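User: Here's a chain of 60 residues. Predict its fold as tokens.
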Amino acid sequence: TLIEAKDGGGLTTTATLVVQVNRNLQNPEWIQTTYSTAILENYPLATSFLQLNAIDRDIQ
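Assistant: Prediction complete.
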């Protein structure tokens, strides 16, 4: 999964998020296909700003 961050001045950076699933009989299903958010430059450090949700039918 590729994560992209942009600022108001046109600077952009990307990072890769690896989701590892062990002993999986059914693939997890993301609630949305795309997640997007915007945060202010002075947003407090170590503060949550986006929640991702998936359904894992292996645990139901």
